[in-house]
UniProtKB/TrEMBL annotation:
It comes from Chenopodium quinoa (Quinoa). One of its GO terms (cellular component) is plasma membrane. It catalyses: L-serine + H(+) = ethanolamine + CO2. It comes from the Eukaryota. One of its GO terms (molecular function) is serine decarboxylase activity. This is Serine decarboxylase. The modification N6-(pyridoxal phosphate)lysine is found at K315. Gene3D superfamilies: Aspartate Aminotransferase, domain 1 (3.90.1150.10), Type I PLP-dependent aspartate aminotransferase-like (Major domain) (3.40.640.10). Its cofactor is pyridoxal 5'-phosphate.
Length: 484
């Protein structure tokens, strides 16, 4: 057979053994070459070089999983009798569970709430729940959870102040899908519009621009990470003949900065863009659910001229699988929707099939906590974030915390193993910890003790000096020898 020559020798033998079995139809086997393994760098990390304003720096990517993956093996003929295969799988899963416990214990850098218990939903794991099509129109596929999904959407509609008959939305498969959908709606409303996004917007915004072949203008940011509306104004005035599609960050990915929505709208109006010449998508992946419960915070509401809001369900809410909520105005969605006879429903989503289990998890959490419960958790996160910031500052470490944020940004640790151990998110010379409801003072103290001990070796005897982070965090937040 032509394909066998391209396979590794050990796999070649396995395939030949399979083809010699009398109960196997050779015509049913599709043989394809195995893709080449990506070359590893030092310590198993794939490395690339990126040129920035300060010259070249090295980006360290994660380790290659091929070195630690769990192989899928064919069962032996007697496995059904001996149970060896089941025992092997049980052992692998038990060890994997232990690794998850350890990784959860040392999780600080990504905005996931790991504090949840959904034991009551285990009874539903045996069902293939699929919410394909429009959430508000039942399809021919009856094993769905639309009644839960719409209940969740109504809850968020109340939070963002839009009436039931004025909005459309759905539970997405992740936060990126919410951004892709929001930008797509804006593009459909204004086919010749220009997308404006701050340079610290989530990478999915620029992915959307590439996917939809949109003209995209990057806006400069302040040291806080917030969009620079002076630069926004200048770039708007260069393109007054084209409608504006704007991504507003309700918490940037790295610094947790909240763009000033009111100032963005004011800038648009002052530049001669009436409400029917712009579309605003609010990326509220993490802080979209936190901001409503922060005292004196500017509010995201459909009472303002915004087009859509998205939020992640696996972040602050604490859903165990990636998901999100996307809500837009009903008047906009007709530009996307189409009737699908195969479903006996309408569709205006990005994906076809949608996870029907996610609405159940979200519904349970919203019912259990409610607005008051989320308010308490937000206050706890902000309090603990300030505690971490103060402890880092007391230790002589450059650190910044935006007023409306629980993302603590500080000097990037010099040890990549330490970064991996605590799963820190890094960019250039800075790293951050996102303080979530599952992050306790005890965990923060353990992290701080380890970090201070490590730094005593990194900067031993004054041989090395902490980097200057004035340009990234502002002079007032820099603790380098020049600014301390």
């Amino acid at each position: 057979m032509a394909g066998l020559a391209t396979l590794p020798q050990e796999l070649n033998h396995d395939v030949v053994d399979l083809l010699n079995r009398k109960d196997l139809d050779p015509m049913a086997v599709v043989l394809e070459p195995i893709p080449p393994v990506v070359c590893n760098g030092e310590n198993g990390a794939v490395k690339k070089m990126k040129t920035g304003e300060n010259g070249e720096r090295e980006i360290v990517l994660g380790r290659n999983i091929h070195s630690s993956c769990f192989d899928v093996t064919e069962p032996e003929d007697n496995d059904g009798v001996t149970g060896d295969k089941e025992a092997y799988m049980a052992g692998v899963l038990a060890r994997y569970r232990q690794s998850l416990l350890e990784r959860t214990k040392h999780h600080l850098g990504y905005p996931y709430n790991l504090d949840f218990d959904y034991g009551a939903l285990s009874q539903l794991q045996h069902f293939s729940i699929n919410n394909l099509g429009d959430p508000f129109i039942e399809s021919n596929y009856g094993v769905h959870s639309r009644q839960f999904e719409v209940g969740v959407l109504d809850w968020f509609a109340r939070l963002w102040e839009i009436e039931k008959d004025q909005y459309w939305g759905y539970i997405t498969n992740c936060g990126t899908e919410g951004n892709l959908h929001g930008i797509l709606v804006g593009r459909e409303v204004f086919p010749d519009g220009i997308l404006y996004a701050s340079k610290e917007s989530h990478y999915s915004i620029f992915k959307a621009a590439r996917m939809y072949r949109m003209d995209c203008v990057k806006i400069e940011t302040l040291s806080s990470g917030e969009v620079d509306c002076d630069d926004f104004r200048a770039k708007l005035l260069q393109n007054k003949d084209k409608p504006a599609i704007i991504n507003v960050n309700i918490g940037t990915t790295v610094k947790g900065a909240v763009d000033d929505l009111d100032l963005v709208i004011q800038t648009l109006e002052e530049c001669g863009f009436p409400h029917n010449r712009f579309y605003i998508h609010c990326d509220g992946a993490l802080f979209g659910l936190m901001l409503p419960f922060v005292t004196r915070a500017p509010q995201v509401t459909f009472k303002k001229p915004i087009g859509s809001v998205s939020v992640s369900g696996h972040k602050f809410v604490g859903c165990p699988m990636p998901c999100g909520v996307q809500i837009t105005r009903m008047e906009h969605i007709n530009t996307l929707s189409s009737n699908v006879e195969y479903l006996a429903s309408r569709d205006a989503t990005i994906m076809g099939s949608r996870n029907g289990h996610a609405p159940l998890f979200l519904w349970c959490t919203l019912n259990r906590k409610g607005y008051r419960g989320f308010q308490k958790e937000v206050q706890k996160c902000l309090r603990n974030a300030h505690y971490l910031k103060d402890r880092l500052r007391d230790a002589g470490i450059s650190v910044m915390l935006n007023e409306l944020s629980s993302t603590v940004v500080f000097e990037r640790p010099r040890d990549e193993e330490f970064i991996r151990r605590w799963q820190l998110a890094c960019q250039g010379s800075i790293a951050h910890v996102v303080v979530m409801p599952s992050v306790t003072i005890e965990k923060l103290n353990t992290f701080l003790d380890e970090l201070v001990e490590k730094r005593s070796t990194w900067y031993k005897d004054g041989g090395n000096q902490p980097p200057c982070l004035a340009s990234e965090l502002g002079k007032e937040n820099c603790a380098c020898p020049m600014h301390e």
